[in-house]
Each structure stands twice: as structure tokens, then as C-alpha cells.
């Protein structure tokens, strides 16, 4: 099997479009090597080669572009933790990055890899989704033609669930991405920051890092004159599928404890059994989600 | 494939399969046994090394990813016949039990101390999140990292700080 390590983005595009061979694209490889101990022999789908894009400078930088914030797909997760823009304007993404796996993994894993793998318990996926991030993808060229660039909402980037199988009967259910292993994720674009915008991340983070989070949750919204205009929650985890809902907090004052009544009623009425994947029953999942929302909004109110 | 990289400050040209894991190459080919082989899944942290000064699990890195990178193993952080302050602190705090996890802990602890010479216990715990100690000797290891900023041991008194 071939191993390609292009130095420039143009070299990577050229290799992708060259017909007659299947290249699997990889960057940090922490998911692949962790899940497939006998990589690459163990991969269920066969490839002619591996293209390592983890060191492409063009994809690793994050920058402001006409008001929007663009995060390179091969930016390491640890770099998001230290990002000033995210700390100021996209707290959910920064908090989610800080709570992803271990320091060793955060230094190697890329944002693109985290999103492409699509774990339900991924803090970063829930945060980017709640913030309304868009994904820029370059598909592989077919029949000698150049590939196309597409921009998708993160919500459109996934279609259902896939089961990944590895040695010794190990299996892992993740979200299934619309792109394949031969398409290259270029960037994630966060919408332009608006005055009064807020966001936070909360998760049921296990004390032992070898366990995954039962529930992770991100909220983004906006406040004008101390009145909530809108608030969106995206929650998922080992115990539940993705929940993407508008919270019924429109026109509620930000300093009003009525927020918590509204949140409790919302969680009480939501049908968590329909998205439950394991762990506690739906009613308890509702209480967990309420607890995380309450903690997040309490911190916001305290500010 | 020929990989040009640097190991413990020395430039190397290694003819090796790009799919070979760094941990295997270090231990089996170069006989550098400081990075330990534990879970091979990036969970125990026993194989922790530095890549360009940042901690990483050598069991989750392929040789093909190392072109132009600077790798440091625990063998590379010692001065000859001299302990680093953290090594000395680990000894004086009696923080080493079976010792299997210590090379990894030492690599992570050293990076933390380089960035922040007086870390809080919470920061130390967060830094050690990617390490497992089967002897459960975490408290003494945390004490030892915290104690590096204190004056050297005198008259057998260990570098220990009163619990905050």
C-alpha cells in the first residue's frame, strides 16, 4: 500500500483526482489507530494508498474571513483551546475542545478527523453543530475531471448511523458522513459573530478518561436588551442520538428564573425514548439534559 | 520509505515502513525502551513522547507521519548522570511504585512545568488525564510535580508542599 504525504494542497488535489487508484485520506489518525490495532490490514474497505494531509499548512490555520471564522480541517484540537477568537465569540467550541479526550490525543487529533469520524459522544461535533458551522469539502474527481468543492451545514453532513467493525468483534456506532474516505474536508466556517450572541458546552464527562460521555450538549443563542431572542440546543452522546431543537425561551428575560421552569417543561415533554441509544431510560435522560442546561444557563445568568 | 526526522536532538534518516508505529520502531528497532508498551490504544499514556515539544502517544503515530518532526523520548530529556528536577522530586516524594507509568508521567509533567513552573493541583490533574497508574499512586505523583518549584531536599526532607 502506498503512503503519500503531500507538501502542498495542490499536490493533494492532484493525487485525489488522478484516476485508477483509491486513496484514503487521513490526518491525525488517532481514531483509526485506536480502533483498528492492526491498521491498515484490518480496514474493511480496501484502499490502494493512504494520503496523510495532517501536515498541510494551508489546512491547519484558523482565520477570520469577511466576519466569519474559518477553522482549518487539520487544525489540532489543542490549538482550538488556545484560540482567542473562539474564547471570546464561540465559547462552546473552545470549551468542547478543552474537554475532548486527553492532552496527548488533543495534540494529534484534527478537527476534520473528529468530525469525519462522527462519534455521538464528540463534544466538538455538538458544539460546531449548535454554532451553525458549515463544512467545506472537496470531493474526489471522477473520470479524469477535477473534484468539486461543496459547502454543507454540519446538520446535512451526516446521514444516519454506521457501524464500524474491528478485530475481535469490537464494534462502534458513529454518525455516517455523506462524504467518503476519499473526499477532503477543507474548512469549518462559523457564522459571523452577532452582538448579544452566547454559547456554552456542557457534558456528562466521566472522571475516568477511558469512558465516553453519556450526554454532551451545546447551546447557542442570542440576547437583545436582556431578552432571549433564540436558543438552540444540540445534544448527543453514547446514550442518545442527536437532538437538535430550538429551546422555548423566546422573549424570556435573561435574569428570570422562569428560564428553568421553561427548560424543565421542555425536557419533561420531549420524547427522549425516541432517540435513546442505551444507558438510562428516556425519562432519566430528560433529567440529565435538564441538569446540563440548568448548569449552563446558571453560569450565564451569574455573568 | 525514507523518513527524515530528528530523535532526541539527533537528525535521523530511517528506512522504515510508513505504516510502522513509532512505539514499535523505538522499542524494537532502536532499542529505546523508555516509552512503555501498555494498552496500544492511547488510553494508558505509558508510551508518551514529545513530537515538536508536545506530548503524544507513540502507539498512535505512524512513522510516515514523522517526516520533518522532532521526537523526544524520555532518554532524551536527561543530562548525563544527572536527574531532572522532576525526576528528583519523584524520588524524594516516593512517588514511584512499580514505575511502569512513570516515563509517560514524567514526559507530561515536564511539559507542564516548562509552561508553568508553579501549576495548581487541578492543572496537574488535567495534565495527567491521559495517564493510568495501575498502582493508583496518583496523589504522590501530583505531590511530586507540585513540589518541583520548592527548594531541593535537605537533611532527608522531601520536596513536599502542604496540601492546599
List its traits.
heterodimer, A: 303 residues, alpha+beta, five-stranded antiparallel sheet, four-stranded antiparallel sheet, B: five-stranded mixed sheet, 28% helix
Explain the overall architecture:
The complex is a heterodimer of chains A (303) and B (164). With 303 residues, chain A is α+β, with helices and mostly antiparallel strands. Helix content of chain A is 32%, strand content 28%. Chain A has 12 helices and 14 strands. In chain A, the strands form 4 sheets. A 5-stranded antiparallel sheet of chain A has the order 4-5-10-6-7. In chain A, β2 (23-26), α2 (30-35) and β3 (49-52) form a beta-alpha-beta unit. Chain A starts with a strand and ends with a helix. With 164 residues, chain B is of the alpha+beta class. In chain B, 28% of the residues lie in helices and 14% in strands. Chain B has helices at 22-29, 85-92, 102-115, 121-127, 138-146; strands spanning 2-7, 10-15, 48-51, 54-57, 70-72. In chain B, α2 packs across α5. The longest helix of chain B is centred in the middle third of the chain and has 14 residues, at 102-115. The radius of gyration of chain B is 16 Å and the shape is globular. In chain B, 44% of the residues are buried. The model of chain B has no long low-confidence stretch (mean pLDDT 91). Chain A binds chain B through residues 1, 3, 5, 29-30, 33-34, 37, 39-40, 50, 52, 54-55, 78, 101-105, 107-108, 209-210, and chain B through 1, 18-19, 21, 40-43, 45, 48, 51, 54-57, 59-62, 64-65, 67-68, 108, 126-127, 129-130, 132.
